[in-house]
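Final report, section 2: Outcomes. Of the targets proposed, Endonuclease/exonuclease/phosphatase domain-containing protein is the one most frequently requested by collaborating groups, and we therefore present its record in full.
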Amino acid sequence: MKNEIFVRSLTAHLDDVNHLLLTEKLDVLCLSETWLTGAMDSCTLVFPGYSVTRSDRRGRSGGGVAILHRSSLSTEQLTVPSAGSALESVWIQLTGRRQIIVGAIYRPPSGPLAPIFDDLHDQLTHVISKKKPIFIFGDTNFDINQQAKTGVREYCQLLHDLSLHQLIMTPTRPGPTPSLIDHLITNRPDLTTDSDVVTCNISDHDLIVASVAGVKSRLQPKIITVRSTRNLNQDALRLDLLLDDWTPVYQANTVTEKWDAWQTTWGPAIDRHMPVRRITVKHQSPPWLHDDDVQAALEARDKARLDKERTPCEETELGTGPSAHLT
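The predicted structure is given below as tokens.
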């Protein structure tokens, strides 16, 4: 399953995105408006069981796109030529049994359109030339339900000329004036099933989900090494340690020698009473997401959004809080 989300600061929504990955069981999640910078190492973005491929906006704040994918999926990042327009994108190729290209794109709502269209055309032409199934997720800020709006007809014609299909047909940004600005674009609609828009409370944009044939990852078992305490007799261990000869530790002259002597005595006793075992464990979800207070906060947030949709007013429509958008 693939999706896309407009997060407006990924670091501020790590738990929300983790919860989404967990509840929706996503294989691939595309993100826009990550607001990441080169100073932020990807290792600080903790998504257990997932890897991050990203492209940060340069020269000014905001923007940025990224793709999260299960670590068990074989992937490589693609270098796709860009004309340097305001269009932001990142591309990966799944290199497993079915080779598929996935792209995340974002077009800021303002700025000249001609460079955007030229850049988008060149990038799409480049990935199409690889003759593989292509799936592109993103917020284009083109409401295709409003054909009279600036740039919408040109955008739709561009996709048509390249034999690409936009699969989302219902609004992705709810409210008094719903809009369909979050898109799923592909050259292989026959491989796609269950494309849908799902209510999401990370942002004022809803989540777009789709299942793609042949993409489901095979979960790899996680094997760890532990010391078994199942048959541990603490009194017997203490007795062995008491009877062991610790003289070499006291006679050693340096810290290193003392450490080596201590390990020589301690190690065999621990190995006898707490042998090393290799065990397979199931992937554990982030434990903090199961905290009662966190769950209560999530439920309160969901209720607030439902109240907003049922009784919209000026205060709820003009809020300035962070948003997250999913496709």
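The helical segments are 14-24, 113-128, 152-161, 234-243, 247-251, 255-273, 292-310, 314-317.
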